[in-house]
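Why do we care about 3D structure at all? Because function follows from shape, and shape follows, mostly, from sequence. That is the central idea of this module. The next example makes it concrete: a single protein chain, its amino acid sequence, and then its structure expressed as tokens.
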Amino acid sequence: MIKGLEDPVIKNALMHMNTGQSQEAVNILEAALKQNMDEEKLFLLALLALQAGNETGLVFLSQAKNVAEYVDRFSILNAHKFLKQQQSINNEWSKVSYIGKRYYDTYKMVLKYKGTDAFVISYPQSGESFLRTVLVQYITKLNPPAVDESQALDEFLSLSYQDAFWPATAFSQDCFPGSLPMQEIKLNAACYEGKKIVFLYADPRTTLVNAFAAKERDNVIDDFVLGDEGGIDGLVTFYNLWAGYVQSHGDAMMLSYEEMQENPKDHIAELITFLVGDVDVDLLAQAIEKASVGQPEMVKYDAVLNPKTVEKIETIMREKLTSAYAKYL
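And the structure:
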């Protein structure tokens, strides 16, 4: 349960909305404008008001300044239009409307990473796990804490905060592109202003196959990799956006998973130099050795995809990928 949903005002509004009493819910939300509330609650109230089809939500959003400043990949009016059409709100936030939850996810990401100095951005299944494991070994001098995989990203950010010589670094998928249609993939650019950026990427064919394998799915793999959500068109869009951002951002670099696998010592040393400056090459070599133990290998795309599907993917890559990924074309 999201913390803000326990607030009496929000619980009362939810109860009325769940029983079809939208106007009563709006009255409760409008009354809440007179109260002093933190931005998280203001934001939840905004989404509830928009869900009820009431423009009071726009007032709440304007008051939640951090939200209005950072959540720029959906305009407020587009969110209002979409949310106005939805009537599926339930007690759990995970069941609130599609865009509403993604607004909230992005907002929480901004707050969580507020003091972050650097980001490692990647598409799902692009080699993030191996790189993160190496850096955890390196930062902790080969003595990493025991952490459940579901907490690994938060743990890495925490470790980087604690190390006086290491910039606070977060691993992120930005807009969670693996679950979005192509037309909804946009950069949360405001989150990265003044930060160091590393964009980690891999062969699109390999990435798609491993993204499919990472979750249980109803569709077959060939339909998935060519599909609208999580398929090649969305991946190409994400890759191109980030190649352009790295080029214009200045304090940024790109890192290829395949090159990192072929020569991890040199390429991860380049990343550490970029983020920190000096590299302890002996420690890095030991970190790579320890991180490599038990690391699963990427599934090879030509072992599971129909050759005609591979041909279609490669046609899209040739036609749409920028020259930054020429090695794959």
